[in-house]
Automatic annotation (TrEMBL):
This is Regulator of SigK. It is found in: Cell membrane; Membrane. It comes from Antiquaquibacter soli. Residues 113-249 form the Anti-sigma K factor RskA C-terminal domain. The chain crosses the membrane at residues 110-134. PANTHER family: ANTI-SIGMA-K FACTOR RSKA (PTHR37461:SF1).
Length: 255
């Protein structure tokens, strides 16, 4: 009779590390092993994309709230009246593995806990494995940029309704950066794309292109955002235009 425990995955089995990978919680060695696993498994790529999208969606599920100043005073007052345990012997110095773990947690915070916007999964589906991994890196860069914007001290957001969905812009003046999250934009023919624009007193500045399929997707705008810029989206020929050639399908004001 087969021992069921003999078939149970170990904690380091790449097959069960998709969640940790999506949150950036693997060591360099674990990440390399998992990416090798991704290269040979379409199911793993699809699962990892879904988990990454879910993680950043959780961050957007609740509007950010600024705690009242009284909260800190209340906590400190409780600490002052809390008996302290006697001092214990100093713990041994952390080893190399623990230092690496601490570094990962300080340098790569969990996106699920940041007020991150949802981003488009780029690695789902087959295709050339090398291309998928490159796209995965692009996805992670987008997610990291959105997390940085939403975590900024001056981060703001505005949502407008679309005929079949909504669009949310998140931006930070300090970072001069913004990202658009859209849901419900209809797909375009292959020869067209949606193009983003920063629109200021001196006219429209191109800020990148994206495609849509009616589901939720997102895009970090290229270039620097200026105070008072309006963000617009137009339909343009594939490859984008230097100036808008159609009326905007979406406009969001930031001032």
């Amino acid at each position: 009779m087969t021992d069921p425990k003999a078939t149970e995955p170990t904690p380091t089995d790449p097959a069960i590390q998709s969640g940790s990978y999506a949150l950036g919680a693997l060591s360099a060695e674990e990440r390399a092993a998992f990416e090798a696993h991704l290269a040979g498994s379409e199911d793993a790529r699809t699962e990892t994309t879904g988990l990454s999208d879910t993680a950043v969606l959780l961050g957007l599920a609740v509007p950010p709230v600024t705690p009242p100043p009284s909260l800190k005073a209340s906590i400190m007052a409780q600490l002052d009246g809390t008996p302290q345990l006697p001092a214990v012997d100093a713990a041994p110095a952390p080893g190399p593995a623990e230092l690496r773990a601490r570094s990962r947690w300080s340098q790569r915070p969990l996106i699920a806990l940041a007020s991150a916007a949802a981003v488009l999964g780029l690695i789902a589906g087959g295709g050339i494995v090398a291309t998928s991994l490159v796209q995965q890196g692009q996805y992670q860069q987008q997610a990291a940029a959105i997390a940085e914007i939403t975590a900024a001290a001056d981060s703001q957001r505005r949502t407008v309704e679309l005929p079949d969905g909504s669009a949310t812009l998140v931006w930070s003046g300090e970072l001069a950066s913004s990202a658009l999250i859209v849901d419900g934009l209809e797909p375009l023919p292959g020869h067209q794309v949606y193009e983003l624009w920063y629109i200021g007193e001196d006219g429209a500045r191109p800020a990148g292109t994206f495609t849509a399929d009616g589901s939720q997707t997102s895009r970090v705008l290229e270039g620097d955002m200026r105070a008072g810029d309006v963000i617009g989206v137009t339909v343009e020929p594939r490859g984008g235009s230097e100036q808008p050639t159609s009326d905007p399908v979406l406009v969001i004001e930031t001032a």
